[in-house]
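Morning F.,

Quick status update on the modeling queue. The single chain you submitted on Monday has been processed. Sequence for confirmation:
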Amino acid sequence: MSTTEQPAAPIQVGAAPGAERLILRFGLLALFAGVTIYFALSEPSFRSVDNIISILQSVSTVGIIALGVTVSMVVGGFDLSIGANAGFTVMLCAIGLVLFGWPTVAVVPVALAAGILIGALNGLLIVRLKVPDLLATLGMLFVLQGAQLLPSRGQSVSTGVVLGDKEYDGIFTSAFLYIGRGKLFGEIPFPIVLFALVALVLWIVLDRTRWGRQLYAIGGNAEAARLAGVRVDRLRIAAYVVSGALAALGGIILAARIGEGDVGAGSPFLLDAVAAALVGYAVLAVNRPNILGTTIGAVFLGIMLNGLTIKNFPYYTQDFVKGVVLMVALLLTFGVRRLR
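Structure tokens below.
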């Protein structure tokens, strides 16, 4: 009598050997702790309070932008325009303050509204017109990179900039600069507070509310979520709106930190934000975009770069190190998937 070989049942993470489970679940956190301890023991300046605050302040901008792209990833999408959106916001703030002389109370809402509009346009292109998310947001990236150069004719914008035959003497107001440079209670930089608040709010929404469960359901199986009564299209658009708004918020913080409209300010943030979000997949073997993981990923990358700088590693090694960390995170993530 012939027998038919049955396919092996999928292995659950809980059924994996104990050592392998621990590596997959806590490997990235162990690497995080090991790197931090190494830098702290080998470089006394690394463990100073001022340096710790400096690290958190430096990652707050990319962290906020990364949280935005994480929301788009939760619904199964991807926003390539986040870095260009942040750079566009930097220039928009500078143009409003320097060229038009707007007060801070006008510049900030306009910049946030622009980010929301960009996110909404991305969402409409993807959801209503069925343009693939990578193509739609890539197109938006190029549009924003070009649009930010038009008003200033490709120049950076700061007090005293000359466009044509006119010199503009508008300034970055102290109230606006406080967003990027101010401190609460004399010690805590304001960008860190904003980063923490954004992370806390998004964690509550995604992990503790019905909307969060619906967003994850869409990312898991949009058609099943639709059949279950979830307003899939509306929530997917909302995810891109959040991504656009947080990219704009990151741009506002960046503009307030550098105090000018730098035409290249937003360029590095796409890859750094995406790296932080992808590293977050491997935190505690969650194997999906999540707010806690992205926050830890952003801080981890910030610690790595700060430690390498203190130890006088050449600047050109930084991308290599970020790539290694990302590859380790991906190996851990796909290790979880294999065991499942």
